[in-house]
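Attaching the record inline, Q. Sequence:
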Amino acid sequence: MIEMQGVYKQYPNGVNAINGINVRINQGEFVYVVGPSGAGKSTFIKMMYREEVPTSGTITMNGVNLAKLKTKKVPIFRRNLGVVFQDFKLLPTLTVYENVAFALEVIEAQPKFIQKRVMEVLDLVGLKNKARMFPSELSGGEQQRVSIARSIVNSPRVVIADEPTGNLDPDTSWEIVKIFEEINARGTTVVMATHNKDIVNTLKHRVIAIEGGKIVRDEQRGEYGYEN
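Structure, as predicted:
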């Protein structure tokens, strides 16, 4: 469960990115976060994985108040959270298998478990046969699949995706979002910031629209609502 109460975020340059947000996202939901560029979506998303800290207000995720979470405890908090970025953020010198396994190695999981779990998630994202390849040998869509596999290998309760299809062609974007659908069907909460109108309007889920740092629309099975 994710809950924001009275959340404001002002950057040092005086920009008010978030202006009094109150929202609750329940376990198992699939939520699209939409809005025009500069609306505050990225700040909204970044606060969920503690990349940004609110100026005031509270953000609670899985019982943890992120506004008061000490920096040294952030890595521990993120072990129960999956994050997928637009630019993949894979380690270029590691293979597909090693990129995904790394997330388990840092928490000192047992080698036998790591091997089994990594192959399970690579199978889920359709890359079991490319485990020994390096990121540079993969297409953009395949690299994003590796990023997704890495984000879910710890079996997180929540996956946050920040424009995960932003650098991908339309066909590949559909393939990626269907993986998120499968992840959500297994009980994981998915929060996805996106500009992809067709996906939002076709694969219906809750839509939270942000403009001027405020939630202006929150609809179950909502529409994208903007012209790209």
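The chain has one domain: 29-53+70-219. The chain has a mean pLDDT of 94.

More tomorrow.
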